[in-house]
Amino acid sequence: MTHRVNSATADVASLTIHWNEVGVPCIEPHDEGSRPMVNVRLVIVRGVLQLLGLAGTVVGGITWITGWRHGHGLITLGLIVYVVSFFTRNVSFRRSEGDLELSRSHQSTGEKALQHAESAVRSFRKYAARRPAAALRLATALDRQWDLLNDLGRHEEALPVAHAALETWRQVVEQNKSRREYLSRALSRVVVTLDRLNHDAQESIPYTEEAIAISRSLVAPYEERLALHRTNLAIDLRHLDRWEGALPAAEEAAAIYRRLAATDPKQLSPAAESAKFLAVTRRHLSRAAEAVEATQLWIRHERALADADPARTPGLAEALSTLGGDLRNLHLDEEALAAYLEALELCRTVDEPRAVADALPPVVHTLRTLGRHEEARPLEDELGTLRREHPPAGVHVLRIPSPDQAP
């Protein structure tokens, strides 16, 4: 079964960085046209500060007149306190509490981190109800809560959180279109959670299609995300046996990854997977010649990976063997033999007898087809020896006793 690519978890670090860029100040000016919030604690704090400021100013003035040399300093302190009281007008204790809980969540792990995240969500939800501009805080806290639930495997609880985060990010994007990238990530979180809960693929498609539309509207650095969403859409459509619909998505994903891999070696692995998936899709649709083209692209990526890391050699051998099968379907036996032989030689280099045993049959069969029986015989003998010495896992040999051995 092909699993959907999870991009949501990979984005946690970038969201945290973004949060730090926003900062965690506890004083924020009101938006133009917004109504001041009524908060009893704020009124009390502001009143106490003003009383202290006035008292300090009056007492300082009196003591200064009476000759106390520090009286002028008390006057200055009283005036400062009085002026500071006016700046408490826009202080939000609710926001401060949410910031503190979210910070504690990032400093903790497991259930403890989740408790702090849930507390931050509650605080920011009350704050955002009064201040729509605070939706960004709430969205970030919800993302943190989803990440933790996902890490803990509590996907049933994560689903409503993913939906709540999605709706909150929609509000954020309405206020600031530059946040569309995070809306795309929120959509991906919903898709990932639905997949973890084994929901019908049809349910995920609208979210994936919306994420694709958003990714298309973003600039070049987000092409990788577009390719990821196109791959997810192709997977969903394939699960629904809608192979014709999956083909354009698979083709676009492969084309994007091919372009990215040309300049970024880190993209070679997903590029190889996307080319492999494209070959499978074309083969299923009986587009044999186009399947060969996709398989050759897969080989190109696997060869680059194997050059950088010999541990990837089995992947290259698999791709070459697949190419051999595609070429035989087109009755191109000579070309197929060349691919099979290269795959066989690669299997020999990794010193894996069972891999060699798997690579030998197509070589032998193709040689027989081409009438090259003398070349096929030693390979058949080698295959027989390997299968005796290294039988496939799970295969048991039944030995029938001879008549003189029978009881």
Structural write-up:
Mean pLDDT is 81; it is low at 9-40 and 394-400. This protein has helices spanning 12-22, 40-65, 71-87, 93-107, 110-130, 135-151, 155-175, 180-196, 201-217, 223-239, 243-261, 268-284, 288-308, 313-329, 333-349, 353-369, 373-389. The chain has 407 residues and is mainly alpha-helical. Among the domains are: 40-90; 263-390, Tetratricopeptide repeat domain (Serine Threonine Protein Phosphatase 5, Tetratricopeptide repeat, Alpha Horseshoe). The protein is elongated. It contains 17 helices and no strands. Helix content is 75%, strand content 0%.
Strand content: under 5%
- Rg over CA atoms: 33 Å
The description of the largest β-sheet is: none
Distance between the termini: 49 Å
Overall structural class, as computed from helix and strand content, comes to mainly alpha
SSE pattern? HHHHHHHHHHHHHHHHH
CATH superfamily annotation of the domain at 263-390: Tetratricopeptide repeat domain
Estimate percent helicity: over 70%
Shape: elongated
Please work out how many helical segments DSSP would assign: 17
CATH architecture verdict of the domain at 263-390: Alpha Horseshoe
Which stretches of 5+ consecutive residues score pLDDT under 50? 9-40, 394-400
Average pLDDT reading: 81
Output the CATH class name of the domain at 263-390. Answer: Mainly Alpha
